[in-house]
Amino acid sequence: MKVAVVRVVFDVLKPRELDSTDLARSLCELDGVNLVNIVVREVDVRTETIRLIVEGADVDIDDVLDKLDEMGCAVRSIDSVTAKRQEEQ
User: Confidence band (pLDDT; 50, 70, 90) for 88?
Assistant: First the structure.
């Protein structure tokens, strides 16, 4: 039996110059990620506060955190994690 993380909700501070579409595409390229949803919650002079939802068959949270850091984003919190048991065949 394997347990996989299938959905993670992050509260993230991202630079305004980083386009949300570019961020979503970069995260979607990670192994195990099938869907990325970004909602802008607050806009400041230099940053945007976003709610980031990452879904997939087997999301590696560390890979997502590394990619966010690489792109200049700061994770404020992980607000929700959904895991699913996958029966081996």
Answer: confident
CATH classification of the domain holding 33: 3.30.70.1340
Q: How many domains does the chain have?
A: 1
- Which residues contact residue 60 at a Cβ distance below 8 angstroms, ignoring those fewer than 6 apart? 5, 30, 31, 32
Whether the model pTM is above 0.90: yes
Residue 88 lies in a domain: no
What is the span of the domain harbouring residue 71? 2-83
Coil vs helix vs strand at 67: helix
Per-residue pLDDT reduced to its tens digit, 13-72: 999 999 999 999 999 999 999 999 999 999 999 999 999 999 999 999 999 999 999 999
Return phi, psi of residue 26, to 5°.
-60, -40
In a domain, 89, yes or no: no
